[in-house]
Amino acid sequence: MSPGLYIVAGPIGNLGDLTARAADTLRRVDLVACEDTRVTAKLLRAAGSRRPMQSYHQHSPAAATEALLDRMSREAVALVSDAGTPLISDPGFELVRAARQRGVAVTTAPGPSAAIAALSISGLPSDRFLFAGFLPPKDHARRQAIAALAQVPATLIFYETGPRLAACLAALAELLPGRTGCVARELTKLHEAVVTAPVAELADRFAGSEPKGEIVLLIGPPPEQAAESDATVDAALLAALATMPVGKAAASVASAFGISRGEAYSRALALKAAG
Ligand code: SAM
Questions:
Q1: Inter-residue contact 179 to 220 (CB < 8 Å)
Q2: How far is the CA of 198 from the centre of ligand 1 (A)?
Q3: Is domain 4-109 classified as CATH 3.40.1010.10?
Q4: In the 3-class helix/strand/coil scheme, how is 147-214 assigned residue by residue?
Q5: What is the pTM of this model?
Q6: What is the pLDDT of residue 225?
Q7: Which atom of ligand 1 lies at the shortest distance from residue 87's CA?
Q8: What is the pLDDT confidence band of residue 275, given thresholds at 50, 70 and 90?
Q9: Rounded-to-integer distance, Cα 265 and Cα 237, Å
């Protein structure tokens, strides 16, 4: 195989989703860089590969990254992650950037990613979407992150964990009222379960529960700006007021909704006074 870096996608739960080309690449490269060698050992067995592995993750020392870069200028090195596509909420971005900067050939054996798999069966608009990875675990930071995405005219895609799902849905229902959401669990596995419903309904349904397994959470786009209701503007103002002073919150919502600053400011003051 020609020297270079091969970004190889693996399954997200069902080994049958390993592509023929990904398996072939894993059999032929000189080295497989991976997150957890125990997880990748299973993948290599499924691919019929006996190639050596080397662990590579976010906290790998700079010297280890240098050694990998050096190897891929002379040999074929694959990068895989524990599930799905490397770099998608997984390590690899710095490695790819550095490889490209050094003129190392970078190629892909594409395959599954939970975000795209979930989007494709959610029933939410798929013409425009924004993948936002994991929301912050702490409530205040999570609210800030949601508020910052409130007006993005696209389906939002998040990765989530069972223990945090209920709190996350509660925050989404409060800050993005009226939107449709989707909870997609255990995709491609035995207990795959997908539910699409108004976000408030999802918040009720999962309140107090810690569903098992892996989860993708999606939120449909906001309604067309022309049809924005007062309630939606108020919700956006409340979200903005959680993290900004009145003037700034009003200015940001006014520009997002195309309404006058004066109108947004007086609404913001009224909302603040109402507590
Ligand atoms: N690189 C992976 C990809 O391409 O999808 C994502 C890795 S990220 C560290 C792991 C998260 O992806 C999980 O916490 C979950 O949110 C999501 N995920 C992975 N596999 C999944 C599955 N089978 N069903 C639902 N979500 C999944």
A1: yes
A2: 23
A3: yes
A4: HHHCCCCCEEEEEEEHHHHHHHHHHHHHHCCCCEEEEEECCCCCCCEEEEEEHHHHHHHHCCCCCCCE
A5: 0.83
A6: 55
A7: 1
A8: confident
A9: 9
The overall longest dimension of the chain from CA atoms, in Å, is 68
Q: Which atom of ligand 1 is nearest to the CA of 9?
A: 4
The whole-angstrom separation of Cα 18 and Cα 35 is 17
- Provide the token pair at 102: 């050094």
Atom 13 of ligand 1, nearest CA residue: 214
Residue 170 has pLDDT above 70, yes or no: yes
Mutate to test the pocket of ligand 1, among 7, 12, 39, 194 (most ligand atoms within 8 A of CB): 12
Structural fold of domain 114-219: 3.30.950
What pLDDT is attached to residue 156? 98
Q: Which two tokens stand for residue 232?
A: 């939606």
**Domain residues of the chain, as ranges?**
4-109, 114-219, 230-274
* Pocket, ligand 1, Cβ cutoff 6 A: 12-13, 81, 83-85, 88-90, 113-115, 159-161, 184-189, 214-216
User: What are the pLDDT digits (tens) for 120-158?
Assistant: 999 999 999 999 999 999 999 999 999 999 999 999 999
Say how many Å lie between the CA of residue 184 and the centre of ligand 1.
10
pLDDT over 80 (residue 213): yes
Rg of the chain on CA atoms, in Å: 22
pLDDT tens per residue, range 56-68 = 988 888 899 999 9
